[in-house]
Fold this sequence. Notes:
alpha/beta
Amino acid sequence: MIxxxxxxxxxxxPREITDTIVLHHAEHSNCTVEDIxxxxxxxxxxxxxxxxxxxxxxxxxxxxxxxxxGAHCFMHNMHTIxxxxxxxxxxxxxxxxxxxxxx
Length: 103
């Protein structure tokens, strides 16, 4: 199940092809999809740059619509889906629940 919290975006553009999935970590040990959405809006972006966000408890949240161009991987947003996992994986490891949801 994917949770949609009803994020509002500015000026999204359609993405026509998907050939790669790009994985990210939030670099924050404790954050929500709403937190990241706000951080990215504060950067002047359309909203959260990732298409999906996975909490440590394994719950998957919808970020950008899957058919919209992301803002998560410079020079590669036009053809990729971005998935971000909660956590700072330079200091901690992914939870088993996150890993299962990511797979």
